[in-house]
Amino acid sequence: MSIKSALANVTQDHVRTGRAASFAFDVPSIGTITCTRVFRAIRGKRIVCLGEIGGNEVVVKLYFDPRRAKIHWQRSDRGCRVFVECSLTAPKILFSGYLSEHDLYVMVFEYIENAVRFDTALADAPDEAQRQQLLDQLMACLARQHEQGIVQNDVHMGNFLLQGKEIYSLDGDQVRIYLHPLSKRPSLANLAAFLSYFSPIHDAAIAEHYQAYCSVRGWHVTGGDTQKLIGIVKRMRKRHLATYMRKIFRSRDPFLVCKAPDYFSVRDRRVWNDEFTLVCENPERFISDTNGQQLDSNHCCHLSIDAVPITLYSVRVFGNRLFRRHGIISRRWRNALRLNRLGIHTPRPIALIEKRENSRIWRAFLIVKSCDGILARDFFASDSVSDDDKDSVTERIAKVFLAMKQTGIAVRGVHSTNILISDLEPIFLDVVQLNQAAFFSRSSVAKGVLEFLQGWDNDSDVNMLFRKKFKQLNLI
Ligand SMILES: Nc1ncnc2c1ncn2[C@@H]1O[C@H](COP(=O)(O)OP(=O)(O)O)[C@@H](O)[C@H]1O
Ligand SMILES: [Mg+2]
Fold it and tell me: 40 CB less than 6 Å from ligand 1?
């Protein structure tokens, strides 16, 4: 089998499941490289994988788009060379060129051992101070790039690796080079592009990140620039979110749509296994087979698929596709994905299924992964929880409301019984009423906050504590 046909079968599923690619090819002056673990696969265009040459590991990037392979390779080659030539910390290039024998463009890099993607490093940071320090370090890295006139236009966390204390810049595909240091405007735009991937919950820290950046560039920090940066971050984040939300009923990695005249489903491929597939094909059988479980008044029941606890919602919907998209199940699917995307904890949605029951009636199902924790009501009523913990949880909940407000989302109907506290983090359960207003309305946010406060006994300490936090954040 030729390498090209082997490459045609490599997909993101290899990345998810850890399945190895297995083909080998000769590279001049290096030797035979055997490709194994896949880091990334874009079908029909390129893959990035681990390679082995006589016991040594390398990273291989193959370009094989039928028409644009050469252009893709040239762009990447130029970008990666710039990183190395400007003495930025980046993987060494061991080979870069065309293999006529296989009609492939290839780049071979030094493998950075024991390195983690920057987002993983941040998630693993033991506390806020360490997180801040890592981010400041990344800001310094971006400042050095900009100082040398380099702009990484694909500036997300997967393009930075952390090894020990070093940050490696990867991926030259979308790098542009100027002959002079980057001026303020494009610098802020590039910083904002990076910061817009973070949850709005962390927006308060942007000012500090910008300070870290300016100290490397030798710039004086002004409040105006900081505000400008925060403004661009918010606009970019809204744009990313809108693009993402437009595609949530379509096949797009990691989601896959299955459609038939009487059936529609969209499922998360990361939880793919035979049992999950069976459940998606026939959810009503699954409910009745599992100890004759009944749906409760919320149309919901708790079950497990292959030992993974899940929550399943099911309701009947009338009419056509348009009606179904406005139904409660579609709304839950949409809202859960929106919150997850914004880094606000809510049970992860894994499938939406619709089956026709008769000519006018469909039955819709939503499956989300269940979360562990205790209800906010019980958490605050408990004597065994310290006042400090209660204080920090109120602050986190208030920050989530603020983050939603800043993203133009008004959340309604949140009560003490639909927030779960897990490891002092609030998880918003069952968010049905979430409005993303085209024009932001302050009053609808305030209404949501007041509704939430009403859920607590009016003069209780908890109510006072929440009021204080909401006031501090200007929410009421
Ligand atoms: N030199 C390297 N050492 C270790 N891991 C690497 C190296 N280069 C790439 N990777 C891994 O492969 C992933 C994709 O690489 P990247 O060059 O960003 O490809 P793409 O252009 O598809 O985004 C990175 O996020 C990283 O996890
Ligand atoms: Mg990349």
Answer: yes
The residue ranges of every structural domain in the chain are 3-110, 116-244, 255-369, 374-472
Residue with the smallest CA separation from ligand 1 atom 1 is: 111
Q: How far is the CA of 435 from the centre of ligand 1 (A)?
A: 37
Q: Is 409 exposed, middle or buried (CB count within 10 Å of its CB: 0-12, 13-18, 19+)?
A: buried
Fold topology of 116-244: Transferase(Phosphotransferase); domain 1 (1.10.510)
C-alpha closest to that of 410 among 377, 379, 444? 444
The answer to whether the CB of 159 is under 6 A from ligand 1 is yes
Residue 434: the pLDDT is 66
Per CATH, domain 374-472 is 3.40.1160.10: no
Which positions of the chain have pLDDT values less than 50? 438
Query: pLDDT digits over 346-402, tens only?
Result: 999 999 999 999 888 999 999 999 999 999 999 999 999 999 999 999 999 999 999
Q: Please, is 87 exposed, middle or buried when counting C-beta atoms within 10 Å of its C-beta (0-12, 13-18, 19+)?
A: exposed
pLDDT for the residue 86: 93
**Which residue's alpha carbon is nearest to atom 23 within ligand 1?**
171
For domain 3-110, give the fold: Phosphorylase Kinase; domain 1 (3.30.200)
- One fold for 116-244 and 374-472: yes
464 C-alpha to ligand 1 centroid (Å): 49
User: Ligand 1: does its nearest atom lie under 6 Å from the Cβ of 115?
Assistant: yes
Strand partners, 374: 421
Q: Which CATH number fits domain 255-369: 3.30.200, 3.30.70, 3.40.1360, 3.30.1760?
A: 3.30.200
170 ligand 1 Cβ < 6 A: yes
**Cα–ligand 1 centroid distance for 253 (angstroms):** 18
Q: What is the pLDDT of residues 302-343, one digit of tens each?
A: 888 888 999 999 999 887 888 888 888 998 899 899 999 999
* CA–CA–CA angle 405, 476, 456 (5° rounding): 100
pLDDT at 132: 93
Index of the ligand 1 atom closest to the CA of residue 115: 4
Look up the pTM and report it.
Answer: 0.90
Sheet holding 374-375, edge to edge: 374-375, 419-422, 425-428
Task: Enumerate residues 6+ apart whose C-beta is below 8 A from 269.
Answer: 13, 16, 253, 254, 255, 256
The response to whether residue 171 sits with its C-beta less than 6 Å from ligand 1 reads: yes
Distance 331 CA to ligand 1 centre (A): 36
Measured from the Cα of 172, ligand 1's closest atom is 17
> 173 C-alpha to center of ligand 1: Å?
11
